[in-house]
Structures are given as structure tokens and as C-alpha cells.
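Here is an idea for our session: we take a single protein and study its fold together. To get us started, please write out a protein record for me. Start from the sequence, derive the C-alpha cells from it, and show both lines together. Go ahead whenever you are ready, and we will take it from there:
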Amino acid sequence: MEKSREHNKPLCICFIDIQKAYDSVNRELLWKICRSYGLTDKTVLMLKLLYTNSKAQVRINDELSDSFDIETGVMQGGIPSPILFNILFDYIMRKVIEEANVEGIKLGYGTNDFFHTAKDIVDELNILTLMYADNVVVMCNNANDLEKFIKTFEKVTQEFGLTMSVKKTCIMSLKQLKEDSARRIIKDEEVDIPDIDIVIRNQKVDIVESFAYLECFVSRDQSPDEETFPND
């Protein structure tokens, strides 16, 4: 975001949340993906045994219900659970990225120190998504690519048994200023906000001015007063 603002480049961001992510994992599919990622049959069998005959009860008015089978999901608080979910989600996201076929934002980087000159090769990264647990940040330089990715994400995750929480998902476009014919920035004259109207399961994805991500607030104008850590 800082580089996009520094160079006055467009940036459309979507913060995506997965509804009950850990509880929705298709176990049989997870075991197949684990094998495809190189886990041995013995390791997969040991993991499966952790979930064999898993049951739960619900307490209502101080009385426990009859036990019932739990056939989906990974254990909340289980030591291997984050790794298992990451394996599944990595597989899903690769499918989404392949099918969406859109570019993210391009970031060039290189080295400039005692051993290297400024003319050394600069590598270019294409950053489309950032992922942490069940939260996804999507970054595109135009609204059309962002919409295509979100709709592809919805389609593919549904196929794998996961559901995007539209209520907790939102979109934000970075503030971009107009430029004159010499590409000089015109102060306080903002480029028109992109028209982003995305509907998922008859629910419109909210457009926001700021958002709290990983306990840090980010705003579309990157105001230092707003980009602070919450006190509570």
C-alpha cells in the first residue's frame, strides 16, 4: 500500500473471511491432499486415527445431549490443526489463482549495498494474495480483476466445502490523486473511486473506507491518525 501511494498507482483490495473454516474441512479430501503433498501413508493414517469416531455433546440448561458424530472439520486448538488447514487452503488457493488467471500488484526489489550496485538485476514480484489462518487479502490494480478473483474464490471454495462469509468480507480502494499532462500529482484532486459492485449469494460485498487487519487499522487514504493499533 505504501508503494502504491508513493507512486500514485491504483490498488483495489478485498479482505476475505471464511465462515467456520476449521469446522468445515472435508476430512476425506484433506487426507487425499496430504498424500499429494508428500505425506506418507503412515503419517496420514495416524492423523486419521485422531479423528476416528469423534463425537460431541451439547449442554443445554445444565443437561448434556446425547452424543453425536462429528464428520467434518479439524479440532479447534489441536496441535496439527493449523498445519492441516494450511495444507488444504494452500491447495484450494492454488486452484483459485489458476482459474481466476488475474495479476496482482507488481513489486520490484533489488540490492544496493557495498557488494552490489544500483544497476544490479531487479527482481519483480507479482503479489496477488496474502494469507493468514483463514483470512485472505486480495490485491489487484483494477476493479475488474478483483471482481473476477472474488467470484472465482467463491465458486472454488464452495466446491471444496468452504464458505466465504460475505458479511465479514469487504472491499477498499486506495486513494489515488489525479495527474497533469506532465504526470505531476494534482494535490487534493482524487481520481474517481472505482465502481465495484459485487454480489455473492444475493449479498453485496461492503465497500469500506478503513479496515482492521491483524489488529492494525488500514485506511484508503493511509492516514497516520487511523493506521494505529487498537488499544483494547
Observations:
- Residues 21 and 134 are 6 Å apart (CA to CA).
